[in-house]
Specification:
It contains 13 helices and 18 strands. By secondary structure, the protein is α+β, with helices and mostly antiparallel strands. The protein has 2 domains: about 100 residues, Ubiquitin-like (UB roll), CATH 3.10.20; about 300 residues, Glutamine synthetase/guanido kinase, catalytic domain (Creatine Kinase, Chain A, domain 2, 2-Layer Sandwich), CATH 3.30.590.10. Its cofactor is Mg(2+).
């Protein structure tokens, strides 16, 4: 959509407000809203000023003037505002018009440009599979003398005996028994359909939706893959629409990776491929999983750099409550065809040459999509450039259920870091591949690591309620 088309859309839909948005280092959206009458073609050339010093990791107060530069191609009508509002995503520039090197969206753009500069291909495609929970109630508190968290869902298997329904209606989702049941066990079908309708109206191609494995409202809605930046843009739209549709219906949605102990967590399995024009580069008939050698090197780069990647693809302390060896999340640094217990899976079902791809199953939706997708692409490209063969390095293929291997067999398999702090250590030790082409900067990574270390320390130094169960009687 061009600037002219945006201006025509504003007139045609009687838009009253333009909501200019950008994404911070942590993956949260921020916005400044301007009357539509104050927006013209010059606005798209000059941008909108804002204070960058009020956001973690952006800039200090003496250099706080920043500019949001709107991208007209991202415009879509906000379905939640009382007054007609058009949302437009933005890049961040410095006051002198230079790209801000800590702007996540600009980093993602530079990753795309780097791919083209290498001559390997013209476009990288990403397709994230987003999982999330929908709760009816969430409460948490942390004070000096009180520490608690409580979530509830009418679907929760713990609610088979509750009386607050005016007579319990039954049909609860059993423990880890929520994979694609029909109504009335699946009580969220209509909510997902409504979310999907709004996603389509916002420009996403929704492919399907269903209930996921966990009890208490775990859902998945899949949208079609796109180029790196466009997929990250779509993911930001996705989160906004999921959060607000749930709230409109008196519920609350979260992409927190592991909100319930003992149930499957929520991941962001990320499908990836590279094309050169219309030519898919990952397909080779007769290869392992019909993968080309270039695809194998890409897999090698992902697995080789995975310990460092997790600092960006699984960037919360809660992420590592999901990434537990022997449980449902793939922590094993191996690849396999059709095997969901491997960190990298090669999909086999209903795959055409253009659909040939790899799936990195470790990430979760706590990630900033611009940073996570860019880092994964840089790791894969490093694998291609250096011809990192995953087979030669012991990364597989492993065509067995890894969870059922013997202890001796498991000892031969490397795992991702066990905590956010360990992942940050790995990123400090292994980040040169991200600096290629100026995609990520040293300054950015230093600020990112500092922010995330502070998060890790904040959790590590606070008292956990379960410590009372373990130690109060000592």
């Amino acid at each position: 959509m061009s600037v002219q088309h945006v201006m025509e859309l504003i007139d045609r839909e009687a838009i009253a407000w333009i909501d200019f948005r950008f994404t911070d280092l942590l993956g949260r959206s921020h916005h400044i809203t301007v009357p539509a009458d104050e927006v013209d073609e010059e606005t798209f050339a000059q941008g909108i000023a804002f204070d960058g010093s009020s956001l973690p990791g952006f800039c200090s107060i003496e250099e706080s003037d920043m500019v949001m530069l709107p991208d007209p191609e991202t415009a879509y009508i906000d379905p939640f505002t009382e007054h007609p509002t058009l949302i437009i995503l933005c890049d961040i520039l410095t006051p002198d018009g230079e790209v801000f090197d800590r702007d996540p969206r600009s980093i993602a753009k530079k990753a795309e440009q780097y791919l083209q500069a290498t001559g390997i291909g013209t476009a990288a495609y990403f397709g994230p599979e987003m999982e999330f929970f929908v709760f009816d109630d969430v409460r948490y508190e942390y004070t000096q003398n009180s520490y608690m968290a409580r979530v509830d869902s009418i679907e929760g298997h713990w609610n088979t005996g509750r009386q607050e329904e005016g007579g319990n209606l039954g049909f609860k989702v059993k423990h880890n028994g929520g994979y694609v049941p029909v109504q009335p066990v699946d009580s969220l079908h209509d909510l997902r359909s409504e979310i999907s309708r709004l996603l389509i109206a916002a420009g996403l191609r929704v492919e399907r939706h269903h209930h996921e494995v966990a009890t208490a409202g775990q859902c998945e809605i899949n949208f079609r893959y796109d180029t790196l930046v466009k997929s990250a843009d779509n993911l930001m739209k996705y989160k906004y629409i999921v959060h607000n549709t749930a709230r409109r219906r008196g519920k609350t949605a979260t992409f927190m990776p592991k909100p319930i102990h003992g149930e499957n967590g929520s991941g962001m399995h990320t499908h990836q491929s590279i094309f050169n024009g219309d030519q898919p580069l990952f397909y080779q008939k007769g290869g392992y999983g019909n993968m080309s050698e270039l695809a194998m090197y890409y897999i090698g780069g992902i697995l080789y750099h995975a310990p460092a990647l997790t600092a960006l693809t699984n960037p919360s302390t809660n992420s590592f409550k999901r990434l537990v060896p022997g449980y449902e999340a793939p922590v094993n640094l191996v690849f396999s065809k059709g095997n969901r217990s491997a960190a990298v899976r090669i999909p086999l079902a209903a795959v055409s040459p253009k659909g040939a791809r790899i799936e990195f199953r470790t990430p979760d939706a706590a990630a900033n999509p611009y940073l996570a997708f860019a880092a994964m692409l840089m790791a894969g490209l490093d694998g291609i450039k250096r011809k990192i063969d995953p087979r030669a390095l012991g990364y597989g293929p492993v065509d067995k259920n890894i969870y059922e291997l013997t202890p001796e067999e498991k000892a031969e398999i490397c795992c991702i870091p066990a905590s956010l702090e360990e992942a940050l250590d790995q990123l400090e030790a292994d980040h040169e591949f991200m600096l290629a082409g100026g995609v990520f900067s040293k300054s950015f990574l230093e600020h990112y690591i500092a922010i995330k270390r502070e998060e890790a320390r904040a959790v590590q130094t606070r008292i956990h309620p379960y410590e009372y169960a373990l130690y109060y009687d000592c």
